[in-house]
Structure formats: structure tokens, C-alpha cells
Amino acid sequence: MCKNPQVDIDSPAVAELVAEVAAAVSRRAATVSEDVYEVILRDIPELRDDKSVLDLLASSVHSNIGTCLQVMQHQIDLSTVQAPAAAVEYARRRAQRGTSLTALLRAYRLGHTCFSDWVLRELARHAADAQMITAATLAMSKVVAGYVDQTSEEIVTAYAREREHWLRNRSTARAARIRDLLSGERVSVSATEATLGYRLRQYHVGVVCWADGTAAAVDTITRLEQAVSHVAGKAACPDPVFLPRDVSSAWAWLPLGIRDTFDAAEASTAGVADDIHFAFGDAARGTAGFRLTHRQALAAQAVALAAGTPRQPSPTARSPPSR
Hints:
Blueprint: H1 12-26, H2 29-43, H3 54-74, H4 85-96, H5 101-126, H6 130-183, H7 189-196, E1 203-211, H8 220-234, E2 241-246, E3 249-257, E4 276-280, E5 284-285, H9 286-306
Antiparallel strand pairs: 1-3, 1-4, 1-5, 2-3
């Protein structure tokens, strides 16, 4: 932060005033924390959707405010300060739930603004001299901005690390469950549904999705997942199961609920890149249907590849609908 040459923000008098203000705000820390918490939830609906972590959000807010006030009151070097454990854990939990990092960082920006309002209002009660108020404002703003910036960096790191770890573990667990399902082994339907986040006791459509070999690239799996989501959306099949198979192909299952028919021609691939192809099975129900429609999709893919990979799978490659 640039310094006003006529204002010495590092003078002992300014440090004493900042410490006095921080101590006064500390005595109302619970009220300040509640205010910041309510502002965050009011302005970021995404953070209201999971009540199981609201208490952790409140702890994160309270611990961040308490730590920042201690830094100001005791002139603690920011380089020695780490993000509070509750704040880091909240970021980890949000990463596990797929909350956007944008929402987390916005919470810090809103918290920064709200907290600064409290501090500056308190400063007005402790000083009347304009030069001292200016110096203390600059000094406190420097600390708060520095704390928020430093803590946000730690939160981003914790979020990214946990997101990668969680997705890797989830993918491994999902792959194992699907492998058991496809092998015909006896499985716990409830446990499998919980792992997959998908109901097995409904009708499904198996899908094989692949990209031309010449187009395989580091982002191919992401493109395939987006393509499956696109087709699922067109077919009114929310939250499909998606399982990467290799660098250029994937398996998926579209949930139909109580619908017992599926027309591949109606699952529009308009808007999907020309190098991405699909093969579909027929609507089939339950765990046995999960396996059957998948085998049909594999058979349809084989026919499509033999025919030179048409844009839509050949109807002759698909068995009659299963009931």
C-alpha cells in the first residue's frame, strides 16, 4: 500500500491506536462474526445449500476475525501467521462437495468489506484528529488486506489439493463399484447407490462415448464428459454416471426413472464435436438392466466401428427394449 508522506503509519502512536481499536472490536467479536456470517449467506446462496457445514462456516468466520484482530492488536508479523484450522477445513469440505472456488473467494471479499466497516466505525470512536484517523485507517487496511490475501492463498491451495484428492478417490471407488456391478457379483444396492450418487432401482440406458484416435489429447476425457452431459440434458436424464475407460473413451449410464423406452435418435448430438461418437443400449431396469444396457451399448459401438463410426449408432446393433 502506498504511504502518504505526511502520515507515518508506523509510528508508535498509530500502533497504539490500532491496538486500542482492535481490542475494542475483540470484545464484540461474536457480534462482528455473526454479522459477517449473515452477510456471506445472504449474498452467496451457493453456501446456504449444505446445512451440515454451516457450523463450520461460522467457526471459520469467527476464527479468521479473531486471528486478524490479534495481528492488529499485538503487531504480529503476518509472515508467521497461518490460516485458522477451521477455515482450512471449511475449504476442504467445500471442495469435497464441489462448491465453486469462486464462491469461497467471494466470501472472503465480502467478509473483508464487512469486517473493515466494523473496524473503521470503532476507530471513529477512539480518535478525533484527522491525521491520526488517516494513519490508523491506512495501517489497519494494510493489515486486513494482507491477512485476507495471505489466507485466501492458503485456502486456494487447500481447496485445490483436497478437490484433486477427493476426485481421485471417488473415481477409484466408483470404478470399483461399477466393476462389481458389471461382473454380476452380488452387491449391496444401497451402498453402491451411495457411492455412485445414482439410483439403480430405475430404468437406465447404457452409453459408450469415444473420440477419434487422431483427436486424442489431454482434455479428451473432459470433452467426453461434457458431451455425455449435453446428450443427457437433451434426453432429460439428469446426473448420468460417467466412467473414463482410457484416454479417448468412456462409459456412461443415463437415468430414465420410470420411463421404459429410449430413442437414441431423440438424444440430440447437435452441438457435440464431430470427432466424438456415441453408442447406446436400450432402456433396462435395475442392476441386471444396468449390465444388459451396457452390453448392448458395447455391441452397438462394435457395429459402428466396423461400419466406419457413423454419427449415430446403427439401429440394427441394438437389441429390442428390455422389460
